[in-house]
Design a protein that fits this description.
Largest sheet: 6 strands, antiparallel
Radius of gyration: 24 Å
Number of helices: 22
Oligomer: single chain
Strand content: 5-15%
Shape: globular
Structural class: alpha+beta
Length: about 550
């Protein structure tokens, strides 16, 4: 839990507590938010439940298993008999489409999985990401009678006793819940008539999610190396991470608490470029969350943002520094950054929404995360490996010297644009196979961080394609040195002033020559497109193809 103390006395009321809008519909007082009393107990119970949900069993619920296997297996079978032989992007796109269609039919759990995949640019194949983006805004809404029943059951009052207006059609419908515009009844808050957003959980989603997680855990081992989109992943580990993520979204009291903790962290850090909606002090339950309504420009509305005179470079900088600083200093950050969860306000501030997925680092993991970022800025590759191990991505007893040598990290980096398609795939396969051989996995917090960084990458391409990436990394490093240098040095066990920026490993990660002095996102994207074009131009799969090599390994 973030300490509610603040060093910003110039703010009054709840603005001294957290990064809220300047004039809210109510004032947040922590002692009035009785729903917070049990959040720690609820969060611990949810975490303890995950191992049980994904524990291997002889057979999960038969009917659901047959339905899931039939939908997914049927789609894969049709793909296998049709476009699979063509190979390349066309084959992957067809398989992705069939998987997306199966997810939509199977319902909330699989739609949510698709939504997570849709924000995983760079982690999953482009065709898969592009297809699952459709899951963000094509989820059928619950009928109004069902919504009314959930709200009245959880709040214990007729709908009209709480809201003077409640729109029957939702503003948006997602896999777990949908949100409606409403106006509070006059007696609910001082002044009355406050416009709000009401998030309402789908009534049967909790039971269905638990059932589906058991099915996923049973199916996951059979997917290893079976289809291209999972060939380079570890499906059982992905199921575990997904279970840890989605189960926390099923109780809106946790989400409201996440909102407060992130907002308090931002205020303590002096991050005034963010705005978090206020959760209502009394209208928060397991399935209903009433919050302040905020609005602004869509994150990809570049024309509108420019017309308002907002500096798009500053928006990108805010996104990068904001979640990095919260994770490094307080161990808490928004875990699901994507275009639907952010608005840019006319004054240039970024409004953040949807805190169901929030990264929370234990003190040990926070320090490991801090070391990961700082050693990255210092081009200390062995230090990065140690931090990755301490985050839980490698077993605690991993011999890092062996990993360092096996992965060739002591050698000059390869330029991916100079490799043939087969060489590039072989190198990627070698890397992944070795990492899995060390017992590597993707911890939830690291997955959320990588996913957020992929969003920031895409945001730069949309809002600031001419941004000098090397200059920006240097700027961010300077910011942390000026604002947290003494603390960072102390926690890393080095003298203040010994932390110096070295862009070597960052350049290596981009595959550019170390002598390169600057590179824009446009330049980097041109390199990526060159690599992608080489991959598309390669010959159709042969017995030596990546998929067959994985199957034999």
């Amino acid at each position: 839990m973030v300490d509610s103390r603040t060093d910003t006395p110039e703010f009054e009321g709840d603005l001294a507590l957290a990064a809220f809008s300047d004039a809210g519909p109510w004032e947040v007082r922590l002692d009035e938010a009785r729903w917070r009393d049990r959040v720690d107990t609820i969060r611990d119970a949810v975490r303890r439940e995950v191992p049980t949900l994904i524990k291997p069993t002889r057979m999960p619920a038969g009917r659901r298993l047959i339905e899931v296997a039939g939908r997914i297996g049927g789609g894969v079978a049709i793909w296998s008999m049709t476009t699979r032989r063509r190979g390349g992007a066309e084959s992957t796109a067809d398989l992705s489409r069939r998987l997306r269609q199966a997810a939509e039919i199977l319902g909330p759990t699989y739609i949510k999985l698709g939504q997570i995949i849709s924000s995983g640019q760079g982690i999953f194949p482009k065709e898969l990401v592009d297809e699952f983006i459709k899951c963000r805004d094509q989820v059928p809404a619950e009928d109004f009678a069902t919504v009314r029943a959930v709200v009245e059951s959880d709040l214990g009052k007729p709908l009209e006793a709480v809201f003077s207006e409640f729109d029957r059609a939702p503003l948006a419908a997602a896999s777990i819940a949908q949100v409606h515009r409403a106006v509070l009844a006059d007696h609910i808050t001082p002044g009355g008539g406050q416009e709000v957003v009401v998030k309402v959980q789908r009534p049967s989603v909790s039971e269905l999610v638990h059932q589906d997680l058991r099915v996923m855990a049973w199916l996951a081992p059979f997917l290893i190396g079976r289809i291209p989109v999972t060939a380079l992943a570890n499906p059982p580990a992905l199921v575990e991470v997904f279970a840890e993520t989605i189960t926390e979204e099923l109780d809106f009291r946790l989400e409201a608490d996440n909102m407060l903790d992130v907002a308090m962290s931002l205020r303590q850090l002096g991050q005034t470029a963010y705005v978090i909606p206020r959760p209502h002090p009394t209208l928060v339950t397991r399935r209903v969350l009433v919050m302040e309504r905020l609005s602004g420009f869509s994150f990809d509305d570049v024309a509108g943002i420019n017309a308002a005179g907002v500096n798009t470079h500053e928006i990108v900088r805010t996104a990068m520094i904001g979640f990095l600083e919260g994770a490094m200093i307080h161990g808490v950050f928004h875990g699901d950054l994507h275009g639907g969860n952010l608005f840019v306000q006319p004054d240039g501030r970024t409004a953040l929404f949807d805190f169901g997925i929030t990264g929370r680092l234990s003190e040990a993991k926070r320090q490991a995360f801090l070391r990961l970022l700082m050693t990255g800025m210092m081009s200390d590759v062995k230090g990065q490996l140690a931090a990755i191990r301490d985050l839980g991505a490698l077993p605690p007893d991993t011999d890092l010297d062996v990993v360092f040598a096996d992965l060739g990290l002591d050698q000059a980096p390869l330029d991916p644009t100079a490799l043939t398609p087969e060489e590039l795939i072989a190198e990627l396969q070698r890397f992944v196979k070795q990492m899995l051989g060390y017992g590597a996995n993707l911890p939830k917090e690291l997955m959320l961080f990588v996913k957020n960084m992929m969003f920031v990458d895409a945001a730069i391409g949309t809002l600031a394609p001419d941004l000098d990436l090397f200059g920006e990394v240097t700027h961010i490093a300077t910011y942390f040195a000026q604002n947290h240098g003494q603390r960072l040095a102390s926690e890393m066990g080095v003298a203040h002033g010994q932390i110096e920026v070295d862009l070597t490993s960052f350049k290596d990660s981009l595959g550019v020559d170390r002598s390169t002095e600057s590179i824009t996102y446009t330049d980097l994207q041109a390199r990526r497109q060159l690599i992608q074009s080489r991959m598309k131009d390669r010959e159709r799969p042969t017995p030596k193809s990546l998929l067959n090599r994985i199957r034999r390994s």
